[in-house]
Write a structure and sequence with these properties.
Length: about 120
């Protein structure tokens, strides 16, 4: 455990000269990434890129997924109700299944795009 702490100790200092515009750009990018300049710079050195993920986008995606879940529950209740009353037309079931496949595909594409951005760091 002691070796790990020694390896993580930040004892080296890096001095870099920047122009005003470069420095402002660095401050802006660190701020956008919700990081201080030191952490942002370390991330650039260690990983090559800093990927900013907009939490607002993630919240919107979660909201949309919850809405889709609500819609699916309504569809399931409708189908169960129709089964009790009478037979559900097969075409209706196939249409619903196709719609669910499209939703699943679109959701997966969105999550894959997010994961690619997240892991590209």
């Amino acid at each position: 455990m002691e070796n790990i702490n020694k390896d993580n100790r930040k004892s080296k200092v890096l001095h870099v000269r920047l122009s005003d515009s470069e420095y402002q750009s660095l401050l802006l990018k660190a701020n956008i990434a919700n990081m201080n300049v030191a952490d942002y710079t370390r991330s650039l050195i260690a990983e090559g890129d800093v990927i900013y993920v907009d939490k607002k986008e993630i919240r919107e995606l979660n909201f949309q997924l919850r809405q889709i879940g609500n819609n699916i529950n309504q569809i399931a209740r409708y189908i169960n109700y129709r089964r009790i009353k009478d037979d559900v037309p097969h075409q209706e079931i196939f249409t619903i299944k196709d719609s669910l496949k499209i939703i699943a595909y679109m959701t997966q594409k969105t999550l894959d795009a997010f994961n690619v951005r997240k892991h590209r760091k």
